[in-house]
Write a structure and sequence with these properties.
The complex is a heterodimer. By secondary structure, chain A is mainly β. Chain A is built from no helices and eleven strands. Chain B is globular, with a radius of gyration of 13 Å. Classes of the chains: A mainly beta, B mainly beta.
Chain lengths: 113, 112
Amino acid sequence: DSGVTQTPKHLITATGQRVTLRCSPRSGDLSVYWYQQSLDQGLQFLIHYYNGEERAKGNILERFSAQQFPDLHSELNLSSLELGDSALYFCASSPLPRAGELFFGEGSRLTVL
Amino acid sequence: GQQVMQIPQYQHVQEGEDFTTYCNSSTTLSNIQWYKQRPGGHPVFLIQLVKSGEVKKQKRLTFQFGEAKKNSSLHITATQTTDVGTYFCAGREDNYGQNFVFGPGTRLSVLP
């Protein structure tokens, strides 16, 4: 158990819909990272927050947005969903402002039909 | 932008054989990390290498960071079925980099 909690674990929705994925980092970790992993693919970096502030953006679509709240949990919002958005979305946390060892949650598997 | 490649993409070995995966970056890295993801699981941190030419060992696993800090390798001696999974390297381009760029991973299958 990494100490990072992600909900929901599984989500099935239709094209055009909007979903919100939630992540609670390890206790004390101020950094939250979001990654997308499509079937049999690597980990694509989406976005990084540190203590509520956006620190870095990767290949995140304009239809996607994220935020980190004062209690340090983070949410990833995916809108106008397309079939290609079906993937495993991982959240990872780290105690450091710059990337150190990442502790990954178990992921949220999104299926868009 | 920074690109991190890994070879091979897949590797099937007989239990007891050795296994090596190679990681190459298009740019010089400040440090590199290795993660293991079991089937159906999430990535788990294995190690971080920082110094040029650094070699670190964890039981049957040996990690190397190249002299030019653009490549790395993970070698597993005498594989076991518990080694099954995908091994990812992740490189950070400079000390101010906010994130690590992950390679596509090497999927290891171990036949008993």
